[in-house]
């Protein structure tokens, strides 16, 4: 196991593209990474794209982004209105959004997206289109705990401080009122998963978020 550091290129700030099928996906999957990254690299640029949401959910999506992006200077939030649960049947329209993203955000340093083998059909569509669209980029696939029991064995970990994890769980509970009565939507679920991932990577403070990094191109000169 070796630590890799993601640093901005000399001529630009770090550029992160976050993709989520529904309001709350990005926050659950990589909210800790975002909080941590913005604390360490406040000049980073974050593009936050949510693909579905009725009026109430779109409002939650924007509030969720605000609560995780805080006062970051360079952020953009985009919420689309594709129908929740029907992404496989709206593929052409969703693909058009990705084609536009490729033109407007051609070179993100990291793309955060859904896990390829996620059992939610909407999540898989976003994951597949991410790989179709961004072919020369670092893509990290995040995980969403759910009834279907589709958690696997991730291979990329971001250790987190306990206060970052607490803040992530608190933000989720505060912002996503429409989800609070779901049996799985609780601070214990979010903190428990991050604690388990922390065990798997021997995180210094016990917690981590985990990702699937299917392809990573390493320049040894950068590591030297
Ligand atoms: Zn979702």
Description:
This protein starts with 14 loop residues before the first strand and ends with a helix. It contains 7 helices and 7 strands, in the order βαβαβαβαββααβα. It is an alpha/beta fold. Strands 3-2-1-4-5-7-6 form a 7-stranded mixed sheet, with helices on both faces. It is globular and about 45 Å long. The structure holds zinc ion. Zinc ion is lined by residues 21-22, 25, 120, 123, 144.
At a glance:
This protein is of the alpha/beta class and 224 residues long.
**Quaternary structure:** single chain
Structural class: alpha/beta
Cα separation of the termini: 16 Å
List the helices and strands in order: EHEHEHEHEEHHEH
Number of distinct beta strands? 7
The fraction of residues assigned to DSSP E strands is 15-25%
- In DSSP terms (H or I, runs of 4 or more residues), the helix count works out at 7
Largest beta sheet: strand ordering? 3-2-1-4-5-7-6
Low-confidence stretches: none
Outline type: globular
Largest sheet: 7 strands, mixed
Question: How helical, in percent, are the residues?
Answer: 40-55%
Q: What is the average per-residue confidence, as pLDDT, rounded to a whole number?
A: 93
| Ligands, ions, cofactors | zinc ion
Structural Rg: 16 Å
